[in-house]
# Entry
Amino acid sequence: MNKSNTIVLFDVDGTLTMPRKDVTQETLELMQELRKVVTIGIVGGSDLTKITEQLGSSLLKNFDYVFAENGLVAYKAGEVIEIQSLKAHLGEDKLKSLINFILHYIADMDIPIKRGTFIEFRNGMMNVSPIGRNCSQEERDAFEKYDHEAGYRKKFVEVLKEKFSEYNLTYSIGGQISFDVFPQGWDKTYCLRFIPEFETVHFFGDKTYPGGNDHEIFSSDRTQGHTVVSPGDTKQQCTALFLTPAA
# Structure
C-alpha cells in the first residue's frame, strides 16, 4: 500500500464519533496510526465549527484533508482550497421562497416537541431540523426514535422534492434530527474533485443506504465504500484493512 496514492475518507457522526459527541482518544490514536501508511481525510455534512467541536482543535493538523459541508468548504494541509455558496447559486428570491415554505411546513407539523433553530444556513447548504437544533441530547434521542417510526423527515423531503422540483436540489437525511438541502451534485462526492491524484479512495460511513448522506460517495465508482455502525466498528475494519500485516 502506498501512502501517496491511497486516501481514506471518513464520515464523522456514527463513524468516528457517536452522534454529536466528542471523539475518543482511542479513535484519534487510530487516525494517527493510519496516517503513517495512508493519506487520511474527513468528509462531513456539518460546518467546520461543528466538526472541530467533535474532532478537536487540532483537526486541520491531524488530517491531511478536511471537507466540511460535503467538501463545499475544503481544506488541504490546513489551508482552504475552496468555499462554495448556496446563496450565490440559487439567488435570493428562490432561497427566500424555499425558506418561507420550510418554516410554514414546520409550524404545521404535529410532532411531540419543538425547540429552536429549525434552519441552519451554511456556506453551501441548508440544514433543516423539524424539532430544532437547540434540543437537548435526550430530546435528540427521543426524536430519532419518533422519526424512525413515523418518518417525519422522509415525508418532509418528499414534499419539498415535489414543491421545488425545478430548483434541482438534493435532500439528504443525516444525523439524528435533520436533513441537508443543497444543489444536485453537491453531495459528498463533491470532495472527490480535490483528490484526483489518488488511485485508491476508501470511504467509511454509517448512512450509506439510499437517501442517507453517505450514499452517493459510498456507491461512487471512484471509491471503495465501507459501511460501519459505530466508531468501534470503524476501528475494527480499518485495523484489518490497513494495519494488519499480510500473512
Observations:
- The first helix runs from residue 25 to 35.
- The mean pLDDT is 95.
- Residues 117 and 133 are 5 Å apart (CA to CA).
- DSSP finds nine helices and eleven strands in the chain.
